[in-house]
Amino acid sequence: MADSLRRLVNIGTFSVLQEKLEKWLSDYYINTCDQNTARCCEIIELNAKVQGQLFKLLSLCAQEGGLYGGANIIKSRLLPWLGQNFFTSGGAVTADTSLSVLAEAAAKDRELSELQEMYEKSLDELDVELQKARTENQDLKDELQEAKLELNRSLRESTSDKMFTELEVNDLKRKLVAAEEENRLLRSKSGLLAEYQTEIRRLRDDIALLTARRDVLIKSPPDISAYERLERSSKLDDKLSDLNLYYRYVPGPISPLSIDDTIQRIRQQNLVARFNDMFAQDRLTTMDTLRRYSDDLENNQRIVFSIMQEAFNVAKLEFRQFKMKTRANLAKTHFGPDTLEEAVQDYINRNTDLYDLPSMVSDVIRALNRNPKIFLPPDVSFAICQPLIREAVKLAWQMSALAHPLDIAVATDAELFDDTKYRRSYDSEYTAPLVNHHIWPALIQGVRTLVKGEAVTRRGASLGTPRRSRSPARTTSPFRSVSPRSRSISLTKACCACILLASFYRIVSLYN
After folding, report:
1. Do 411 and 441 touch, CB atoms closer than 8 A?
2. What Cα–Cα distance (Å) separates residue 319 from each residue in 214, 235, 267, 326, 371?
3. Are 489 and 221 in contact (CB under 8 A)?
């Protein structure tokens, strides 16, 4: 009994009846007569099935009370209904079967309603998407039409402008050919002008050289050092005498004395890079050359370091004289708000090649011959190191010509090792505080170290000089292989006369 009642409650048949009645009411005016009749029959059948189940439960309840259980209640409440032709449609099915049928019917009704709602919703969505697709299709058609119109318009314009474009291209080609031809002519003329200027400068140098040699030969016997100084001075004076005629200082946006000047920055970078290249390449090449004549590594290293020291000393001395003469010549014509020093530095920046390289190389070699700390075999001259000497003199002159010059640090043997200026060599004693000798100088600018040098530190380093073998056959100039006293005056005069004669014939042939 209780189980049957629980199943009837769980199915919720009366709620299903209520839902069907509400749905029939909402769709009553929409449905046809047949649909309304079918709905009513469906509700009656479902109600009859529920009543049948209730009568079954009533019978079971009455049987639990005995033979006359519930008779009074049935007589008072049920018999009046039966007298009014009330009947139920019982069936041959069991209570469980009827309840399951009711549950399946309710579930199918719910599924049908859900499917109908989903179908209607999908139809609405499809209608919306269809409308959007139609709108996009119309937009694409409009864009396509506009593109066709634009294409036709551009084609008409291109065909109309094509003739003008071809004419312009042909005109530009003709102008380009004419410009290239004119450029070629200007280059050839500029090359000729540069050659003429170079030849004029060379002829002036030759004339000054010949004049100086003539004066020396007339006045006194040739002393080599005085002769070379006179020759160098005459050439420099001849070049500087043109300042008043050709040079005029034009002030720029930045003073040539400024540390931020473009020439200062670019040349300083290039010179520092060249200084490093000389340490990595030229120094090693010179060491290989010296090793052919001397196996003393320390002496060879001292020679290379002395070359750098003497090159900077000679270059700085010559540059001071050059700058003094330049200042004296420019002071005659200088005027304006800018200072004389700016004009001098501007001229130096424009003419950094006005120096006598062979004379300075000779001065460096003579200084090396006077140095008691270095030596070579008796039959060998320091002229074998001339490639390094030339490059060192060039570098020293260009570093001295800067507005803020570069220099090498002052170095002496047995000085206290300074790790801010030098690094120790691989064969040094790292606990030694004193420098035995230097391998390469340190590059400085004022008090700031730009590039570190290299030194050898050993314990017991002192100022004592190494032993040096001297020979009377040792040369004091790269142009002499014997003692200066062994050369006769007649031989010198003959050589000078030959040089004068050859130069005279060359000048005459050039002017003709």
Report:
1. yes
2. 27, 14, 17, 10, 23
3. yes
